[in-house]
Amino acid sequence: MTTKRKLITFDWAIKRLLRSKANFGILEGFLSELLKEDITILDVLESESNKETKADKFNRVDLKVRNHKREIIIIEIQYDREYDYLQRIFYAVSKTALEHMVDNSSYASITKVISINILYFDLGSGTDYIYKGTTRFIGLHNHDVLELNEKQKQLFEKDSIESLYPEYYLIKINRFNDIAKDTLDEWIYFLKNEEIKESFTAKGLKEAQEKLSIMKLPEDEQKAYEHYKDDLRYQASMFESSFGDGYYEGRTLGIEQGIEQGIQQGIEQGIQQGIQQGAEQTIKTIALKLLQQGENIENVAVITGLSHTEIEKLI
């Protein structure tokens, strides 16, 4: 019988442990399995969104690193549902590419960005649990794929047009069925269950098993970790409560209107109003927490989508 060893969550590891060069092997293992090539991390790149506060889990970026090919990899972990998440990661990638572009240089110097998103909510509609997004140009008439010519391949040191553009990976953790069919699945199993089976052979997992044990953390770190987990539970509860209150209040209002306008129409309106009220209240709660943690109005507006006027009313 295999003894289970309780491991810390990957998001906590990213925030507290994996920024250290001594622990790069864990992150390199995960990236190598996902990207299907051996990845070496050169350094961790800090930015405003990497700062650690109690509102960490609402950060736009959890970790930003540069690999041996000078590409920038953004890794973000998201727990709460966010309907415009796809637009948000597009914004983050675009901003990162511009931040790392050398002044007065040609467009050829633009750094490739890879966006890896570990999601604990169901984004969009689909049956898979790992999605990859790239950019390709398809002929409207002949349906051929536009390719680089030989001179461009030499200049850019790339084999295809899509390799010039950002890549997006969406990992929908909750859709994984806990059956590890390959080494990448072994990593997904760990991300979902905080457990590594003795039979797993994926790159980086053995090192993770040794270094990410809760019992190996110093006592103050163990307490900080438990506090962090409690905070995650609290935020999840707040979201569900706000959503639920808005839903049922809206549904009740819809039923009352339905007496005059038709029961079915009223219920539909009530549900819609409830969803909207719950979502709006949740966004305002998040904005207020960010303000309390010292975030400026501009950053809060970007993160929540609220206007400056709406944010100022919360102060």
Number of strands: 6
pLDDT < 50 runs, ≥5 residues: 54-61
Helix coverage percent of residues?
Answer: 40-55%
Total count of domains: 2
Structural class assignment = alpha/beta
Largest sheet: 6 strands, mixed
Query: How far is the first residue's CA from the last residue's CA?
Result: 56 Å
Shape: globular
State the main characteristics.
315 residues; globular; single chain; alpha/beta; 6-stranded mixed β-sheet
Structure, explained:
- Helix 2 (24-35) packs antiparallel against helix 6, helix 7 packs antiparallel against helix 8 (263-292) and helix 8 (263-292) packs antiparallel against helix 9.
- It is built from ten helices and six strands.
- The longest helix is centred in the last third of the chain and has 43 residues, at 219-261.
- The protein has 315 residues and is of the alpha/beta class.
- Strands 1-2-3-4-6-5 form a six-stranded mixed β-sheet, sandwiched between helices.
- It folds into two domains: 10-216, no CATH class; 219-312, no CATH class.
Helix-strand blueprint:
Layout: H1 10-16, H2 24-35, E1 41-44, E2 63-67, E3 72-78, H3 85-99, E4 113-119, E5 130-133, H4 150-156, E6 167-172, H5 183-193, H6 205-211, H7 219-261, H8 263-292, H9 297-304, H10 308-312
Parallel strand pairs: 3-4, 4-6
Antiparallel strand pairs: 1-2, 2-3, 5-6
Task: Compose a concise summary of this entry.
The protein has helices spanning 10-16, 24-35, 85-99, 150-156, 183-193, 205-211, 219-261, 263-292, 297-304, 308-312, and strands at 41-44, 63-67, 72-78, 113-119, 130-133, 167-172.
